[in-house]
Design a protein that fits this description.
Elements: E1 3-7, H1 11-24, E2 31-34, H2 49-59, E3 65-69, H3 74-83, H4 87-90, E4 93-96, H5 100-112, H6 117-134, E5 153-163, H7 181-210, H8 216-225, H9 228-241, H10 245-261, H11 266-269, H12 272-287, E6 301-305, H13 310-315, E7 321-326, H14 334-341, E8 346-347, E9 362-368, E10 371-374
Helix pairs in contact: 1-5, 2-3, 5-6, 7-8, 7-9, 7-12, 9-10, 10-12
Protein name: PTS EIIA type-4 domain-containing protein
Domain PTS EIIA type-4: 1-128
Keywords: Transferase
Length: 381
């Protein structure tokens, strides 16, 4: 019989799901829980690959193991765990993108009726469709079948590291005389107009490289630059506080980024990279800083940096970039969306250790169950 592993930061949640399955499924299904936390109140740490690996081994059967996750942050650690299994075992382990509660119930019911691993995963995945239909959401061309039900050693990429410089502007406040305030505001307007021209080029380049469906990313950048209220806010700050345009602009964007960071929607919080992208472009024009774009030093390179803005990725010679490793980054960012569209493997949230790599050093990226992993983060057997 297929077994189930629940990966959750909350032991209370995982135990609740397990109890719900036991109460509603006629035949007992083996469920193991992977959580780092011994108390219900400790929700600070992601579940480690070692813990997930232990849970998989604990309930493994030849019929297979279905792994369900409470958050997308758990996916990479789960893939790391699978990467450290023997191939014969890993071939019978599947990660599910289904919601953990409904997906577990659906999978457990199908397993109790004798379902295979693939059938159990399909049953779990269908719950996404069912909930959307119940809520009246349109589902054009919605694919209810998982892309990678079974483990397969898909792609391995080895290439030299290209340490791409990440520049964070630190803008000091400068006192501007009253008779120069208008000139300061004109500087801002000029920077905005120059940025609009850049964005028009980026929109065309995006269309050329990956098609019209991704041009909305930079259309939204232009929309923000054309926002009269934003421009008025910055100009008012210049006049009121007699400060330089760069400082007023940065403070305005800091407030805007903070507003997005407080939103409940993960996708909206992920727009932070777009706001920083727009801000960096404007500040480069206001400070006359050189553009960051440089050609890759190698014919094939893995770009390593702290964060990568969407516009930077599109402007680079992407044919020479074989992978992207970000110490920070966000899986829901537009940079990730563009990298996927360009078929460039991207790993977000790799940690500060990624920045300690040496330029020119060969590193390997490996794809496990549709998730790209950096080999030096593998756990030991």
């Amino acid at each position: 019989m297929v077994s189930i592993v629940l990966v959750s930061k909350s032991l209370t949640l995982a135990n609740g799901i397990k109890e719900l399955v036991n109460q509603t499924v006629d035949r007992q299904v083996k469920i193991a829980i992977a959580t780092n936390n011994q108390t219900p109140l400790d929700l600070t740490n992601e579940v480690s690959p070692e813990t997930i690996l232990t849970a998989i081994k604990k309930c493994y059967s030849k019929q297979g193991v279905l792994v369900l996750l409470d958050t997308y942050h758990s996916a990479q650690n789960a893939a790391l765990a699978i990467a450290n299994l023997e191939h014969a075992i890993a071939a019978n382990v599947a990660l599910s993108s289904a919601p953990i509660v409904e997906g577990t119930l659906a999978a457990a019911n199908s397993i109790a009726l004798g379902a295979s691993l693939e059938e159990a995963e399909k049953a779990a995945h269908k719950t996404i469709t069912i909930k959307k239909l119940q809520l009246g959401e349109n589902l054009p061309n919605f694919n209810i079948h998982p892309k990678n039900t079974n483990y397969e050693p898909i792609r391995i990429i080895t290439a030299p590291v290209w340490l791409y410089p990440y520049h964070h502007f630190v803008i000091p406040r400068k006192k501007i005389s009253s008779h120069l305030l208008l000139e300061e505001q004109k500087r801002l307007v000029k920077a905005i107009e120059r940025s609009k021209k850049d964005i028009d080029w980026l929109t065309e380049e995006t269309y050329r490289k990956i098609g019209e469906q991704y041009t909305h990313i930079f259309s939204s950048h232009r929309f923000l630059l054309e926002n009269a209220e934003l421009q008025l806010t910055v100009c008012s700050m210049i006049s009121k506080h007699h400060c330089n345009a760069e400082f007023a602009l940065q403070q305005t964007f800091i407030d805007l980024i903070d507003t997005y960071a407080q939103m409940d929607d993960d996708n909206m919080r992920a727009r932070e990279s777009d706001l920083e992208d727009i801000l960096s472009r404007l500040l480069r024009y206001l400070t006359s800083a050189p553009p960051p774009i440089t050609p890759p030093p190698y014919p094939n390179a893995i770009l390593v940096t702290k964060q990568l803005h969407p516009s930077t990725l599109i402007a680079l010679d992407t044919h020479r970039i074989k992978g992207i490793l970000l110490s920070h980054g966000n899986p829901l960012s537009n940079t990730t969306l563009l990298a996927n569209a360009l078929d460039i493997p991207i790993i977000n949230e790799a940690g500060k250790q990624a920045l300690s790599l040496t330029g020119g050093q060969n590193i390997t990226l490996k794809k496990v169950q549709n998730i790209w992993l950096y080999q030096n983060t593998y756990i030991s057997h």
